[in-house]
Amino acid sequence: MSGVDLSIDGAVATLRLDNPDKLNAFTPDMLTQLDQHCATLERERSVRCVIVAAQPAKAFCAGADIIAWGALSPFDFARHWVRDGHRIFDRLARLSHPTIAAIGAHAFGGGLELATACDIRVMAPRATLALPETQVGIVPGWSGTQRLTRLLPEPVVKEMALFGRRLSAERACALGFAAEVSDDPEATARAMAGKLAGTSPMATEVAKYQIHAAVGEDRSAMIEALGGAMIGASADKAEGVDAFANKRTPEFPGR
Ligand code: COA
């Protein structure tokens, strides 16, 4: 049975792809489970960092399950595969917690798109990145041509998507896509997560959202959320709510 497991150990949550016999390829069940785990994490205030990892296999994730999506009608492919994948990967990208992908082996197609939805990536030296979709007659569908092009130079994404070129861990690190190359990416990710424990959770969350707004990751929602947080702390808001609840005219203090 394929799945995505969620475990929480103190301040660190781990999402782990579990489909090693199929190189951790993403099945519909795995998408659904990732969505449910993101919903859990959105309400989990004790967690300070989320690590995205996979069961040991030749691939961290060899992409979306070709047999599963291959059986879908064109409209179901668009509605229930491409759009669900987008929505769920967006949900992961927009978690308030910092996220780190620990890429112990190859990350292809949807596996690369999953890692791209994280804030930071650590790669094993043998891990490579690829967008092989055109070789199976489709195009990257879970933001590989969009979010990935914000993190890697456009010609590099074209080399990968059009020419099938694999990107080595070393080159991915030199280009800034991977923060570090490590023989044990998960241990390195855990050490990074440990450092976050001493930082302000609120400042970290707001900094993440500010950077998202700067690069266009859900920009308009990020601006509204930050504005909402600012006004939500004001005496004007407290007065407005109190006046409404007590059926009186508000007297806003302007602070
Ligand atoms: N979807 C479904 N099953 C997949 C898969 C995928 N994306 N990638 C690998 N698998 C399965 C294989 O079918 C095989 O299953 P089997 O043992 O029942 O035959 C198993 O995982 C092992 O893969 P295999 O191809 O035998 O391993 P390999 O070492 O020879 O090759 C890859 C590894 C990654 C190069 C190769 O599996 C591959 O090209 N996978 C598809 C990558 C891809 O196109 N991803 C984008 C999909 S949109």
Describe what this molecule looks like in 3D.
The protein is built from eleven helices and ten strands. It is 47% helix and 16% strand. It folds into two domains: 3-197, 2-enoyl-CoA Hydratase, Chain A, domain 1 (Alpha-Beta Complex), CATH 3.90.226.10; 201-245. The strands form two sheets. Strands 1-2-3-5-7-10 form a six-stranded mixed sheet, sandwiched between helices. Strands 4-6-8-9 form a four-stranded mixed sheet. β1 (3-9) and β2 (12-18) form a beta hairpin. The longest helix is centred in the N-terminal third of the chain and has 20 residues, at 74-93. The protein is an alpha/beta fold and 255 residues long. It binds coenzyme A. Coenzyme A is lined by residues 22-23, 25, 58-59, 62-67, 108-109, 132-133, 136.
Question: What does this entry show, briefly?
Answer:
With 255 residues, the chain is α/β, with parallel strands linked by helices. The chain is built from 11 helices and 10 strands.
CATH class of the largest domain: Alpha Beta
Q: First CA to last CA: what distance?
A: 56 Å
Give the helix/strand class: alpha/beta
Main sheet strand line-up: 1-2-3-5-7-10
Q: How many beta-strand elements?
A: 10
- Quote the average pLDDT: 95
Runs in which pLDDT lies below 50 for 5 or more consecutive residues are none
Main sheet? 6 strands, mixed
Bound ligands, each once: coenzyme A
Query: Quick one: overall form?
Result: globular
Instruction: Write the H/E string, N to C.
Output: EEHEEHHEEHEEHHEHEHHHH
Q: What CATH architecture of the largest domain do you see?
A: Alpha-Beta Complex
Given the structure, what is the number of helices?
11
Estimate the strand proportion.
Answer: 15-25%
Q: How many independent structural domains? A: 2
Fourth-tier CATH superfamily name of the largest domain: 2-enoyl-CoA Hydratase, Chain A, domain 1
Quote the CATH topology of the largest domain: 2-enoyl-CoA Hydratase, Chain A, domain 1
Estimate the helix proportion, in percent. Answer: 40-55%
